[in-house]
Design goal:
It is a single chain. With 357 residues, the chain is mainly alpha-helical. It is built from 17 helices and 4 strands. It has helices at 2-14, 18-31, 33-50, 55-69, 125-139, 146-161, 168-177, 182-194, 198-210, 216-228, 232-245, 251-263, 267-280, 285-297, 301-314, 319-324, 335-343, and strands at 81-82, 91-92, 106-109, 114-117. A two-stranded antiparallel sheet has the order 1-2. Strands 3-4 form a two-stranded antiparallel sheet. Helix 9 packs across helix 10, helix 10 runs antiparallel to helix 11 (232-245) and helix 12 (251-263) packs antiparallel against helix 13. The mean pLDDT is 91.
Length: 357
Amino acid sequence: FIGGYHLLWNLFEKINRYQEAEQVIVSYMKANAVNGREELHAFYKRMHERLPDEGSWYYKAGSMLYQMVAPNPEVYSIDFKEYKPDKTTPVFTNYHPGAHRRHAGSAIMPGINTYIILANRIMFPFSDGIRFLLKADSLMADEEYLPAEINDKLGDLFVWQGLIKDAPKHYQKAVDLQQQNSGIRLKLIDVLDQLYQFTSAQVHLDTLLNRNELNFSKQLLLAKYYIHTSRFKEATVLLEQAETIHPYHMAEIENLFGRIALLSNQPKKAIERYKIYLTLKPDDVEAMYSIARMYATAGNKKEAWQWLQKAMDKGFLYAYVLKYDTIWDGFRKETKWKSMMKRYKFIEYPDPDKAVL
């Protein structure tokens, strides 16, 4: 029961024996993990008021909340946030107007009939954890190892909360402080890739490649970057190495090999790779459309018609693409093309030349 613990930690707090008070609450957590965590959270907040320049209390509070959410961030969706278009301040994704007022209630101590008010429930672990760790980072900059750990945790909390664009600066700071930590660098690469910051992501991928620390998924990602920057030979080397690791056909590898051949103006090789890819991803209409285009480029109109038909049957119904793709200039005058265009209901987008800005 909380009663004895509650009396003891409050006694320690009154006589400024804060470490002992903390240990009592931690001991209570073993008996009641949820309420104990809430009491520890409330205790840390009291420490912030009493000792506002002691970074360790902010670090402990932020780390406790980090450990709380890390196993399953989705449980705390009430604290998810997002940036609305053209806004610089994030807002709650699942706003609940009364959430900040929720508390766990009270308990009565047997024998002396004394009521104790229990700590409020932890409703915003991401927001509180981020706030505490940011404060800890500002107060503990001279520590040898903690700033890297703190910023790594901040990056994770921002990602889990939904504010991915706020994560890179913290992962980057952690990487700068711990250059050899490939785990943090991998997380930084992930968020940079999601934010379309491909040049920055490639710098870190190249670093891992030079250290022989590139895992399989990042090897394929780097190959994709090389392809997009026309570094086809380097991409081919990475993909051939990947094939030796996974000798069976993998959709992503086949797709990337097909892309290299396509961009290198090798339609025959590209078609071979894309056909293998489609045995693994049979509903990829963009791959079907690419095959149709390559057959058209090679002058094989029969196959071009067949693959275009397959792509459209499966859902490649982008009116603008079909209207303006120059590869079909020689096909549009044919009756077959006109008949095909009447047969489907197309996905329409505004004409860029007539778009209202």
